[in-house]
Predict the structure.
Amino acid sequence: MYDVKSPKAEEFINNEEVLATLAYADENKDNIELIDAILEKAKLKKGLTHREASVLLACDNEEKNQQIYQMAQQIKKDFYGNRIVMFAPLYLSNYCINGCVYCPYHMKNKHIARKKLTQEEIVREVTALQDMGHKRLALEAGEDPVNNPIEYILECIDTIYSIKHKNGAIRRVNVNIAATTVENYKKLKDAGIGTYILFQETYHKESYEALHPTGPKHNYAYHTEAMDRAMQGGIDDVGLGVLFGLERYRYEFAALLMHAEHLEAAFGVGPHTISVPRIKHADDIDPSVFDNGINDDIFAKLVACTRISVPYTGIIVSTRESQACREKVLPMGVSQVSGASRTSVGGYCEPEKEDEVSEQFDVSDKRTLDEVVKWLMDLGHIPSFCTACYREGRTGDRFMSLCKTGQIQNCCHPNALMTLKEYLEDYASPETKALGEAMIAAEIGNIPKEKVQQIVIENLNNIANGQRDFRL
Ligand code: SAM
């Protein structure tokens, strides 16, 4: 039975409820009256239920779809302005005991190079990331209790936060590691992580079990209930995601929203972010063998419908996507992108040797961080290196209330300008710097409170004079 508050995976992601939702969406995909009513509700910017959102996703009326895109753009503007937060993944280890059929780190892959960074190697990788200008990382690791126990992850986090190279610093470490225990989530919280990210891969239980035939990840309930344990461990910023291509996208979308509704109902706070990765070619992985691949148009519709359905949740698009695809979906509601990513273990300070490749998947957007930053500004977005919220204790429902009261413009916007200024001073090419300075000058006037404007102008001068790390 479907029960949004239940602690049991099969009750809060209830298969019958997902199927009933898809049937309801099919029945109503041409019901213009209902679609108009859902769009009216979406205008209130308080989100939609999984059933309502699924009707919008199923709708193939061109005029209504244009309205969906416009609304997604409006909601993105109202809640996130024109800021895009930057981050990079850091692969710690690709040792893994799971058998995920879409991932080249699966245990049976005997020819991929297995690597695990030592603390000295982490210093070199993080120094290289700091030298690009990154301030926020997402740690990635395979699941292997012997090679990558929680103590190893905690030690890496400590090392990363301790590295201060020139004006560089990693100020927020998000963590994407396998589902674990409440006790381990507590340890991650105590280590000062930002968001705990875990992709569901697929919400469809039978497919999930077939796609994860061996290893601890085979356990659907343990994986699906991980965010509940993370919340119990005190982590109230969690990041959801589906690996699109594994299952039917409409099934995944409805279930993903049910997961968000569950977290809101059970813990009073929805997901901090949603990621929308698509399967990519990798070492021994051919994405075309998976039947449920989605094209760029459906991908854009998914992003837009997600933006409308969960206005307070950030949407992350990685370098799995090409420049052209990222450009298409950015205005539809994306709030975070990665830049200059390497998906290999140890790929930042020097390129991997050809016979020692450890990459998780091919990256489509291979540009440098400076190129990505410049490109964003050319398109009118403010690249933000802000990490203020969790450092100021604005996590979980405190962050959500900042969004809900519209205070983001007095807080995130100034923080974006100040952290962009740091980037321009320390890392930008002359062209990017000139563009950025002009953007900051023009954007100061968009800070609503005059007092905040004055503080920001003062801090920008301080940054030009060598001081760092201002935040509101
Ligand atoms: N081991 C952890 C886990 O089990 O969740 C960390 C995950 S892994 C380092 C990060 C994510 O990469 C996975 O959750 C999966 O969605 C994604 N991934 C794996 N293989 C991929 C592929 N071939 N193409 C794109 N993304 C992939």
